[in-house]
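Put briefly, the fold is written as integer tokens. One such record reads:
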Amino acid sequence: MKWFLSILPLVVLSVTSAFAGVTVNTPSNGETVNSPVKYSASGSTNTCSKDVASMGVYVDNKLVQVQNGKSFNGNIEMSAGSHHTVVEEWDYCGGASYTPIDVKVASQNQNGVFVTAPSDGSKVGSPVSYAATATSSCSKGIASMGVYVDNKLNTVVNGAKLNTNITIPAGNHDTVVQMWDQCGGSAYKHVQISVSGGGKVFTGLQATGGWKAYGEYPPKYAICKSCGDGVTWSMKQGISSPSMTGNATKFSIGGTHPYADVLWTNSLIGDFSTQGMKDSDRKIIPNLHYFTYDLYFYSSQMSLSQVLEFDINQYFNGNGFVYGHQCRIAGGHEWDVWDNVNSKWKPTGIPCNPVQNGWNHVTIQVQRTSDNKLRYHSISLNGNTKILDWYYPHYNSGNWYGLGVNFQLDGNSKQSPYTVYVDKFSLTYE
């Protein structure tokens, strides 16, 4: 999956525009906070018609994180103590403005629970991704951590770190993340959440009809209709072994051209629906905001894969949202996400190390925000959940109208042939 659109420049200058501004929602100036520190801010300019290009956060005069667009939402690790931070916006005309925020990061050498996700008071989809750590003055350390949902203990894990997905029904819920140390002590933190409801699920997608496959050649990775021997592929459904359900699908790539790819795509809702959901009155897709992409994959040749790619595509009213995720394997064992406007992959720093000769479970959660941004919320591989909460603008998709999923195999430097089996493939949408 590659798209090549006009690239928007990242302007990083220290010039202040007289009519620009940065509004910081969190943290407050002078506030005592826990690490990682949650930053939420927006930028504006009245002097540049092209608007704000990007925003970033400095910690003690060092730029530590930049996000494209006119809003910033991110978590930043900081050591205990006082820090001078600055939230800055840069516009497309060379202007910039900033707001200083002084924070004090509390020491973690005491009993405490530090929740990275979900945010208190946030609206989330189910399953809900919980990520937290705990500290204690107990010399024996932390025994376990758990999550209560509406006063009922739902999940317990050993140790001082918690990464898990919890299925919670729609509605408002009081949840509590608690730790218990080995000396009889404990600490907890309340997290109020609103779980969106009415989600529907496409299940068994690996076994459904309607899949189409396309080859892609570097360096442009445009779809080729007559690809020749440079890139070859096959797909076989109804595989009983290896399988989790007895109905897995076998995806294979080969050929002679180094770094060639194969894209499999299925249009689920909209103009080219394979599921009988044309959405002719245009009422379904524009009202969808939360998506969970979930599947299991297996390969005895995992090391031969350059990249495995997992995508959700949403198009309506000229707006394009490609929620792209790729697991680099021979390419570097790291997760990347897709920047729609700049047509490039953004490394996340999250390791991606799927097991060979075993089933791997991937769960990806994304959101289309109320102001039409792509929110990359979380990535989970084999139960290890990492929270991103990165936001990117969408792109102009023309007349496309639909919702679909992709699965892609990328060839390595020798275009070594390999096979991946997929099972229990689902997409939840609401």
User: Anything to note?
Assistant: The chain has three domains: 20-105, 112-195, 200-429. The mean pLDDT is 89. Residues 112-195 form a domain with the Immunoglobulin-like fold (CATH 2.60.40.10). The two ends are 24 Å apart (CA to CA).
